[in-house]
Amino acid sequence: MKNIFNLLFILLWSISSCRQEVLPSKPEGILIVNSDKSVEKYITIQQAFEAELPKVKITEINLAKESLQNKVADINPFLIYTIGSKAYNQIEKTVKNKPLLFSSMINWQRFNITTNTYGVALELPAEMQFFMYSYLFPDIRTLGVLYSKKHNHQWFESAVVQAAEVGLALYGKAVSNTAEISAELTKLLPKIDALWLISDPIVLHNADQVQQIFAATAIVKKPIFAYNNLFSKYGAVLTIAADLPTMGRQAADLAQSILEMQLIDEEDKIQLPAGSHVILNLQKVREYDININYSALSSVENIIQ
Fold first, then answer.
1. Backbone angles phi, psi at 175, to 5 degrees
2. Are 10 and 209 in contact (CB under 8 A)?
3. Which of 67, 152, 164, 235 sits most deeply, having the most CB atoms within 10 A of its CB?
4. Model's pTM, two decimal places?
5. What range does the domain containing 68 cover?
6. CATH number at residue 114
């Protein structure tokens, strides 16, 4: 009888040990999925994010080479942080039971956003940019924008309303592919005082496409307002850019709150970029003979003479 009890004890101990071995580990830390680490702005945001969380366990996987579902299961993070639209799209379709944090997504409203989604918007508030355009250039009353139907249709409809609120008219031409851009820009230019460049992967498909847009506006001396400092070298009259390191730090603050399971208000789950900087090309202003409000120059961080 004693032997039977001993055998039962060993059997139960073995079963208990097996169960302990297969129990899933407790979710821990943050998994970063970067759409493309060759993109400098993505790296800048990621570095700022990681620098704010030195005590948090952070793991990174390669979006192109890893099996997302298996890797996420193996790592078992508490939170997943995606950088760029491609990373968010793939993770959102693969992982359904973890908090998901994003940044650097063009027009985030077009993606599937759940109650477990948090993020930092890529675009600065349109109304803030419209106010700056009106403040600096009192004679510019009509703006034009090229946008792709796929990426920015909803955004454009909202921007039209916001422009009207500050006394500007916004005209848009939607394109489906790069072949349509030249013709649509030709139709748009006679109607507008300035062209507004927005983040759009079809309109700004490559450097050659960007140069063609700037060349077309230069012929008719119509200024370009842009969203990234890089466009200053092409001749943008004004750029109002979101500060990338600040976006990374904002995402890190959100991540810390999620890890600590703090209650985050609905209106704070998706945040607008908190920092920006403004570059004015005064040389182009003079070349195009644009009336400028010189008393507004105190709001400009960098002036190209």
1. -125, 150
2. no
3. 152
4. 0.83
5. 30-122+245-271
6. 3.40.50.2300
